[in-house]
Amino acid sequence: MTKISLDLERMKVAIEQMGHDAVIQMAQGLVVSIRQRVAAGYGVDDQPMDPYSTRYAVKKGRTGPRDLLLTSHMLRSIYVHTTIYGAVIAFSDALAIAKAKGNQARTPWWGISPKDREKMKQLIERIKRGGA
Questions:
Q1: Rg of the chain taking only CA atoms, in angstroms
Q2: HEC states along the chain?
């Protein structure tokens, strides 16, 4: 739950054509897509996340759909770690991991949504054309 691996073997054809730097660009693009989706209040299924509980909303002064942005710490801690085989998207610290797990249990948000996949396909096409 705490990381997403972009496996070079699974993207072999695209990687052979575009190179390791393209994998890094794709991973960074995925992080942006996840952050934007979550900030807009959508889960990994591209559906609005469950609203905050009444008690939490009153305590924190939050209304509307769950957007996981109270301090933005969790979303800011998502980073791309590169390896010789690909890229891993993970959280930079234990507090962010704990927050991510708690929020995932309430409303699944961590992962690659169908719209994230579509954005990745578009990014791959831009990379192939020489622009990112």
A1: 16
A2: CCEEEEECHHHHHHHHHHCHHHHHHHHHHHHHHHHHHHHCCECCCCCECCECCHHHHHHHCCCCECCCCCCCHHHHCEEEEECCCEEEEEECCHHHHHHHHHHHHHCCCCCCCHHHHHHHHHHHHHHHCCCC
User: Starting at the edge strand that comes first in sequence, how are the strands of the sheet with 78-82 ordered?
Assistant: 3-7, 86-91, 78-82
- Distance, CA of 132 to CA of 129 (rounded, Å): 9
- Closest Cα partner for 31 from 110, 86, 122? 110
> Would you state the pLDDT for residue 10?
56
Specify the pLDDT at position 1.
54
Residue-wise pLDDT for 9-67, tens only, equals: 555 666 666 677 888 888 899 999 999 999 898 999 999 988 888 888 888 787 777 77
